[in-house]
Design brief:
Blueprint (H helix, E strand, L loop, with lengths): L2 E11 L2 E12 L3 E5 L6 H9 L6 E6 L2 E2 L4 H6 L1 E4 L11 H11 L4 H10 L15 H14 L4 E5 L7 H16 L3 E5 L10 E4 L14
Parallel strand pairs: 3-8, 3-9, 6-7, 7-8
Antiparallel strand pairs: 1-2, 1-4, 4-5
Helix pairs in contact: 3-4, 3-5, 4-5
Length: 214
């Protein structure tokens, strides 16, 4: 069974300690929900998990092997959905999804599945530059279905989504987990998830200190 974990993680932002001594673990079929006030380090932790930031100390591991030993393999096994929607404005919705699908060895069939999963088939021929914020968010989330990967890292994924789109996301997360995938998500919104683990980063706020004092 696949397992993604972190131990003794230290994150420094600017000249301050964001969190230190942080451990987590999520297994195949599992979900880890990150909670805490703004500034507590939820986005920073997700970026560490995605390899977009490097921990000042500690290790990330996949099935016990250090992620830093093979970053390409780690990149290939994850989807990171952050605050910015990576929709190419000159490509249609279908072309955007086909592009992402082909990067992961998929094709038109997986792109079509993604359109149906997130209810955006009617937008297939619309160029990205004409999409609303909510439509861009759904297209960005559709990458999850267009180009499958076992690890989903989602930062406030419900931003700009209506109730129907949130329901589609919840269904996609449930199906992903039932298929052995894992999800780590930071959110202020209520999202239905079956028995998730919760990591409250507010616990680590007391560790905020100037870096010079460490």
């Amino acid at each position: 069974m696949d397992r993604f974990s972190g131990s003794g993680l230290l994150c420094i932002g600017g000249e301050r300690v964001v969190f230190t001594g942080l451990d987590f673990s999520v297994a195949a079929g599992g979900a880890l929900i990150l909670v805490g006030p703004n500034g507590s380090g939820k986005s920073s932790l997700l970026r560490l998990m995605a390899g977009l930031l490097q921990p000042a100390a500690g290790d990330l591991a996949w099935n016990g092997a250090a992620v830093r030993e093979d970053r390409d393999a780690h990149n290939a096994r994850l989807h990171y959905i952050g605050h910015q929607d990576a929709v190419k404005p000159v490509l249609s919705v279908a072309e955007n999804l086909s592009f992402w699908a082909k990067l992961r060895g998929g094709g038109d069939r997986t792109a079509q599945t993604a359109l149906e999963t997130f209810g955006i088939g009617h937008l297939a021929s619309v160029p990205g530059r004409f999409l609303s914020a909510g439509q861009k968010r759904r297209v960005n989330l559709a990458r999850l279905a267009a180009a499958p990967a076992p690890l989903w890292l989602l930062d406030e994924p419900t931003t700009a989504l209506d109730k129907r789109a949130i329901a589609a996301l919840e269904a996609a997360i449930d199906a992903h987990r039932r298929g052995g995938g894992m999800v780590v998500m930071a959110t202020h919104a209520e999202i239905a998830a079956d028995s998730p683990d919760v990591l409250d980063l507010a616990v680590f706020e007391a560790s905020y200190e100037p870096v010079e004092a460490l």
